[in-house]
Write a structure and sequence with these properties.
Organism: Linum tenue
InterPro entries: ADH-like_C (IPR013149), ADH-like_N (IPR013154), ER (IPR020843), GroES-like_sf (IPR011032), NAD(P)-bd_dom_sf (IPR036291), Quinone_OxRdtase_PIG3 (IPR014189)
Pfam family, one: ADH_zinc_N
Keywords: NADP, Oxidoreductase
Protein name: Enoyl reductase (ER) domain-containing protein
Strand content: 25-35%
Largest sheet: 7 strands, mixed
Distance between the termini: 12 Å
Order of helices and strands: EEEHEEEEHEHEHEHEHEHEHHEHE
Length: 326
């Protein structure tokens, strides 16, 4: 098969399409012939040599895919050859075939194209496992999403609005703010020209929001705490703004705040299976009903993976960037 290979750690130019061996499936895995995969920020970090795949995972990039089941292991019961599916991966999506545990496979959502289905597994599992399963975001509460126009952000806006949440977002351009507003965001803040803490306080009568989904980390840490309501929850899923910071501990005590953080890739197979199961029960019906739609900015062939990485690192996109076999 062909796969996009990291020829050496570095910039986007190190990505090249090579002929490689097909993956071998285990008894509890299915082999998927990939129709599409999606670019995630984590891919760019792995390309730089800073985010190795978990032990036993594919060495190739790609944390999600859509495709057709081509083979099944001896202990696989749900899926059969020919099924059209999408899947949460630990790696391997940037290849023509990928092996994945049965429990991390999902049906292509009703009403969604085969290609666009690749835009959902990573964002759906990330958002649902963090702010809903862990932070217990509930109808009637308020949510602030940093990077509202990202793949994570555009999904979070839609699913939160569907559930009855008042949604605040930050973004850095008029175009991105308008896109978020069109998806249902209630309060759209340009972080380049506005103080998001002040705006959040203004829009909540000084209270703050109940939950924050943050991809920046250190650079926003104290300001996020200052933006939370009593019993507020901050969930950190990225460190684009740095890894080390200082905090004002009395803020936590005074407002009974909770700080949470997690990634998805290094979780156990059992934990991923539980998340995928919850996503299928809670998110897939919303997609089928048209309440949550795939936001796809551009589709590249595998042979142009370097250009796709340049685009995501430029932050000029809105929503997801997809790759399809050349």
């Amino acid at each position: 098969m062909k796969a996009v290979v990291i020829t050496s750690p570095g910039g986007p130019e190190v990505l090249q399409l090579h002929q490689v061996d097909d993956p071998q499936i285990k008894d509890d895995e299915v082999l998927i012939k990939v129709a599409a995969t999606a670019i995630n920020r984590a891919d760019t970090i792995q390309r730089q040599g800073k985010y190795p795949p978990p032990k036993g995972a594919s060495e190739y990039l790609g944390l999600e895919c859509s495709g057709t089941v081509e083979a099944v292991g001896s202990r696989v019961s749900r899926w059969k050859i020919g099924d059209q599916v999408c899947a949460l991966l630990s790696g391997g999506g940037y290849a023509e075939k990928v092996a994945v545990p049965e429990a991390q496979v999902l049906p292509v959502p009703q009403g969604i194209s085969f290609t666009d289905a690749a835009a959902f597994p990573e964002v759906a599992c990330t958002v649902w496992s963090t702010i809903f399963m862990t932070s217990r975001l509930s109808p009637g509460e308020t949510l602030l999403v940093h990077g509202g126009s990202s793949g994570i952000g555009t999904f979070a806006i839609q699913i939160a609005k569907h559930i009855g949440i008042r949604v605040f977002i930050t973004a850095g351009s008029k175009e991105k703010l308008e896109a978020c507003r069109d998806l249902g965001a209630d309060v759209c803040i340009n972080y380049k020209t506005e103080d998001f803490v002040a705006r959040v306080k203004e829009e909540t009568d000084g209270k703050g929001v109940d939950v924050i989904l943050d991809c920046l980390g250190a650079s926003y840490f104290q300001r996020n705490l200052d933006s939370l309501n009593f019993d507020g929850r901050l969930f950190i899923i990225g460190m684009m703004g740095g890894t080390k910071t200082e905090m004002n501990l009395p803020t936590l005590f005074a407002k009974r705040l909770t700080v949470q953080a997690a990634g998805l890739r290094y979780r156990t197979a059992e934990n991923k299976a539980a998340i995928v199961n919850e996503v299928e029960k809670n998110v897939w019906p919303a997609i089928a009903a048209g309440k949550v739609k795939p936001i796809v900015y551009k589709v590249f062939p595998f042979s142009e993976a370097a250009d796709a990485h340049k685009l995501i690192e430029s932050s000029q996109h809105i929503g997801k960037i997809l790759l399809v076999p050349s």
